[in-house]
Every structure is written in C-alpha cells, then in structure tokens.
From TrEMBL:
Stereospecific condensation of phosphoenolpyruvate (PEP) and D-erythrose-4-phosphate (E4P) giving rise to 3-deoxy-D-arabino-heptulosonate-7-phosphate (DAHP). InterPro entries: Aldolase_TIM (IPR013785), DAHP1/KDSA (IPR006218), DAHP_synth_1 (IPR006219). Residues 43-337 form the DAHP synthetase I/KDSA domain. This is Phospho-2-dehydro-3-deoxyheptonate aldolase. One of its GO terms (molecular function) is 3-deoxy-7-phosphoheptulonate synthase activity. Belongs to the class-I DAHP synthase family. One of its GO terms (biological process) is amino acid biosynthetic process. Its EC number is 2.5.1.54. Gene3D superfamilies: Aldolase class I (3.20.20.70). The keyword Amino-acid biosynthesis applies. It catalyses: D-erythrose 4-phosphate + phosphoenolpyruvate + H2O = 7-phospho-2-dehydro-3-deoxy-D-arabino-heptonate + phosphate. Keywords: Amino-acid biosynthesis, Aromatic amino acid biosynthesis, Transferase.
Length: 360
C-alpha cells in the first residue's frame, strides 16, 4: 500500500516518583510555603479570611528563566499587598488541546517536538520548588492523572480544566489531592458539571495510579473538602457579570455546597482578548462585597503582553512573551492587583452583601 508508513508503537521508561523526589527533594522553606498557602486559601474559600485569592501567571510555562523572574517580581508584590491579597503563581506545564498542538513544558520542555517526559518532570519539579522557596505558592492544572505522585507536594492550589471537568478519573484524582481544587465550568458554560465535580471530589474514591516506587497500585482517597467552581465563560458567552455569579452561587447552595467562586478573567469571559482581562477583573471588583460568593480572580499574565507564534524548529522564542494564549503584561497586571487590594481595603468598612437576591 502507498502513503506514509504507520509509526511504530514505542515505550519509554519514566523515572519513578520516589526517584524524582530523591533527585529533587522537598526543602523546608518550600514545604512551609506550600502548607501555609494551602491553609490560607482554604480559609479564604470558607469565608474565614477576607482577603482575595489572586491566581496570576503565564498561560503556560515554557522557560524556567522567565518563570523565575516572574516569581521574583510576584514575591515582592506579595510583600506589598499580602494583607489584602493571597497571590499564587500559575505554573502551568500541561496544555489541554482541542485538536493538536504543543502539549506543554512537562512533556516537551525543549519546545522542539522531541518528547522528554523525564527531563520535563525533573525540570518542572525543580522550577516549582524554586518558586516555593521564594515564598510564592504554586498553582497548576492537573491534566494527566499520573502527574500528582510526582508534583502534588509542590502545589498550594490545583485546577481541573473545562475540557476535563466531566471526566470521572479527574474528579477522582481531585478527591486525593492535598490542596484546594478549582473546577472550571464546562466549555459550553455549564456550571452544573463543575458543581457535580465538586460533589464527586468530596467523596472517598479508589484511584488506580503508581506508588512511590513506580509500581501500580490502588490509592484510596479521603475526599477533598475544598473543591470550588471557577467561572471561565463558555460557548454561550461570559459569566463574570453579577447575575451570572448569583446564579452560579445559587446552584451551589441548592446542592448544599459552599458557594465559593473564583472568576477567570481570561478565556470566554474576556472573549479570548487579553487586553480585556483588566476590564473583566474591574467589573467583578465593582460588585464584590463582604459575604459575597466571589473569593478570587484568575489572570493570565506574563512579563510582556500578548503572544508570539510557536517558535519554529531551531528558533528561540522572544523572552517573556507567551507561546500559547495571549497574556496581560506585568505592568497591566500590577494595575489590576493594586485595584484589587484597594477594593479589599474598602470592603472592610462596607456592610455585608446579600447575594441571595432573586435572579432572572
């Protein structure tokens, strides 16, 4: 038969979780950052801390040097506005694809199509540890169910994305993660699938995965009490407006769930226009009030604004510019964070907000 020959199935051994932990061990400073941030995020989600959770950082990591420079700047910002904001850095290393494309730093750290998961795991764990050692907590999206044994001890917050929120295995994985987990509404805009995911993740489950020594085993999970919904808009439009927030909170309350929400200012909420993220954030801040369901915001942010085409083979990418979704610049990000901090300060003198008003 003519045409291109079929590729041969291949199997490449991968380092075990324990071997990776031995190679890149957790440090006391990184562990303190992780544990303290998990507790603070939990308190914010439960309404016990009036600060605002801010999940900010690149759409995807493609350079350790860029990520560390961003983290250093974020560490200074945390010192400036730590009384109002819990700043957590997006260190996203896996990319969900609608069809085809670069699958992220974890699998292809050289951005050249020569897949090297072992190098990606080592470099990712090293980077996450370095960010934590700066006192900056780490957030990421859990895409491959096999990654948590390698990286979960570095995470203060995790996300299950819009494409996988309906996946049973991702809900089960979330039930065993040791940190708060945000479930994005579905790509259609459905909040119900995210609420269902929160319910599922609260329960105990059995998760077939690998143990520290790399041997397959059954992980019995305790359930995750800190699942919550992330509003990111959908095919039917944005859902960052007050009416949408109230509807989502009402759905969660009707399901006897904590109505805590994080609003993603990117994706469908901004019409995939990075320059509108600030406007989305400001619109949410305008209807923020004590006792309301919005507990956090998410911004896709880089050193420089916009995006660049994915680099051709042998070509170095521009420094500090996203190679995936377009991001807000550092300067514009700082403007949003300053307004968020000012809003929190102002709200400390405001009357409590009753979000349980009738909604259309």
């Amino acid at each position: 038969m003519g045409g291109r020959p079929l590729a041969t199935n291949r199997f490449t051994p991968v380092v075990t979780p324990q071997a990776l932990h031995d190679l890149v061990p957790q440090t006391p400073q990184a562990a303190r950052t992780v544990e303290a941030a998990r507790g603070r995020i939990q308190a914010i989600l439960r309404g016990q801390d009036d600060r605002l959770l801010m999940l900010v950082g690149p759409c995807s990591i493609h350079s350790e040097a860029e990520a560390l420079l961003y983290a250093q700047r974020l560490a200074e910002t945390r010192r400036r506005w730590g009384g109002e904001l819990e700043l957590v850095m997006r260190v996203y290393v896996e990319k969900p694809r609608t069809t085809l494309g670069w699958r992220g730093f974890l699998l292809d750290p050289e951005l050249d199509g020569h897949l090297d998961l072992n190098a990606g795991l080592r470099r990712t764990r090293t980077l996450m540890r370095a960010v934590n050692e700066l006192g900056v907590p780490v957030a990421t999206e859990v895409l491959d169910p096999n990654t948590p044994p390698y990286l979960a001890d570095q995470l203060a917050w995790a996300c299950i994305g819009a494409r996988t929120v309906e996946s049973q295995i991702h809900r089960v994985v979330a039930s065993g993660l040791p940190c708060p987990v945000g479930f994005k509404n579905g790509t259609s805009g459905s909040v119900k699938v995210a609420a269902d995911a929160v319910v599922t993740a609260q329960a105990e489950h059995a998760w077939w995965t690998v143990g520290p020594d790399g041997a397959p085993g059954l992980h019995l999970t305790p359930g995750n009490p800190d699942g919550h919904v992330v509003l990111r808009g959908g095919w039917d439009g944005p859902n960052a407006d007050l009416a949408s927030v109230r509807r989502a909170a009402a759905q969660l309350s009707a399901a006897r769930l904590n109505p805590a929400l994080v609003v993603d200012c990117s994706h469908a909420n901004s019409g995939s226009d990075h320059t509108r993220q600030g406007a989305v954030a400001r619109s949410v801040l305008a209807h923020l009030a004590p006792g309301g369901p919005v507990r956090g915001l998410m911004l896709e942010s880089q050193l420089h604004g916009g995006r660049q085409p994915f680099p051709a083979s042998g070509q170095a990418p521009l420094f500090g510019v996203s190679v995936t979704d377009a991001c807000l610049s550092w300067e514009d990000t700082q403007d949003v964070l300053a307004e968020a901090a000012a809003t929190v300060r102002a709200l400390r003198c405001a009357p409590e907000f009753d979000w349980r008003e009738p909604v259309a």
